[in-house]
Amino acid sequence: MTDSPVGRLLDQYDTFLFDCDGVIWSGSAVIPQAREAIALLKKAGKDVCFVTNNSTSSRTQYHAKFARMGYTHVQPEDIFGSAFSAAYYLRHHTPLATSGLKVYVVGSQGITDELDAVGLPWKGAAREPAMNDEPAGMADLSQIGDDPEIGAVLMGFDLHINYVKLARAYTYLRTRREVAFYATNTDLQFPAANQTMYPGTGALISVLTTALDREPDAVLGKPSPHMLDVILESRHLDPKRTLMVGDRLDTDIAFGKHGGLGTLLVLSGVTSLDLVDQATGEARPDYIAPSIGHLVDALGQPEDSSASAS
Amino acid sequence: MTDSPVGRLLDQYDTFLFDCDGVIWSGSAVIPQAREAIALLKKAGKDVCFVTNNSTSSRTQYHAKFARMGYTHVQPEDIFGSAFSAAYYLRHHTPLATSGLKVYVVGSQGITDELDAVGLPWKGAAREPAMNDEPAGMADLSQIGDDPEIGAVLMGFDLHINYVKLARAYTYLRTRREVAFYATNTDLQFPAANQTMYPGTGALISVLTTALDREPDAVLGKPSPHMLDVILESRHLDPKRTLMVGDRLDTDIAFGKHGGLGTLLVLSGVTSLDLVDQATGEARPDYIAPSIGHLVDALGQPEDSSASAS
User: Fold this and answer.
1) Which domain does B106 fall in, by range?
2) What cofactor does this chain's UniProt record say it requires (chains A, B) (predicted)?
């Protein structure tokens, strides 16, 4: 096996971290032969995890999606979404666990489910009603003031974003500088089916960063090191024996490089070979493949059975 | 009169442009003696206009507010809000008047009223419904696609902003680079009553500028020169004989300086004397006064009657 690139990957790495969108699926379509590649890695005794900046789903919700997409061997604890990593980080690395203060959430139910799972109280999210219709709307602004129960603002992707949520988050952060400010991720675009893009969490959060002239205290998604800390801590991994597989240079590959992981870029998502050619130094992935499905031919060879021993 | 600072103002300038918030009123409170100062300027034969970046109201709506606040001599055509200047600019300085294409509006009824007044067709604004509730929401995204009827996106302040509006504007601008992109203003904060601030148009628009990596083709409020062009064109003014009076260095004073106007900063709004002391060169106003109400004592002297002759 050590004579082939795939053999070298199997020899070098015990743990394989996969991005989701553009790597194992694209919208509601499975990447061809990606399921088989994952199954073969598991069969070869490798530890396989999934790492996504999408903050709209909890581990439980993702687990259902993995099963629906035919990734039947994936367990909830194998999935690291930015909603989970944000809740884990807030619970274990901030004073929120002991302060009794609440998290104000601009985001989806995936985030509030994960906060519930770690026992952190919260307000906001989809339950925050929008402004009344004009002309009453303008007068409603005066009802948005500080709330001393809030100790942190956590912002993620929010299909139901409205001015009340933005004004509340802004007011808490502006009124008391000690209110912490967290983001699940800072992707500027949100990828949808059929190569379509919409504004992402990073674009939505710029309403707060520009109005406040303040950046988040921590970003809990790729390429932030906090996301990797959460994975390493809860999974007890050796970075040097871990490979990050993704379709984006600025999140996935940068995430792996910053953390001292090996990196494999797949061309089944948003990055073309042209774009890779322009990348230099730290931005260049260690390995490139058309898709993880292409590993199957190599992994599926007869000599595969000797992979973990060679 | 020429021996006093106020006398020199009256000698030097025929036209006085006033910002509104923080200058003639603050929220729903009239600045003390500001009405009297305006009345005395008009009595002295001066041309008096009002210039505001607030895009939520049309000229007609502002006229009602001026009357309600006791500024009874102000006519609709004396009021230049950024909703009016945006509609005027789009009608007279872009191909929209002849292309038959529509303006997609993220903003309030003030903007759509002004577009109606100049005969430009539009879509969007408050009529754009928000996303359905989860879990249907995510699937709704696929209904947001390009619309070939749209020739420009115009964004202003919007209390009823939602993801559908943002995603539509983003999609039009991303899909066709020839779709023009306009902003009524780029103020990062929106001043409300009692010294409170909320996120402003400039903060809301950063969702689009960051996701698209594209700045607006034109900003139609202060300190953009387009706003001044609209005033000068429709009012036939001489910039050298015009004084801009405002409470902000970065919008009002910069607006006046860029346009070759005289500038008077009043301290009745957001700018303190400390902040003025830190300003250098182009950022420094020509004149400073505690408020326009303080002009009354000087303007009200007996020699006032000789002001226009002296």
Assistant:
1) 90-219
2) Mg(2+)
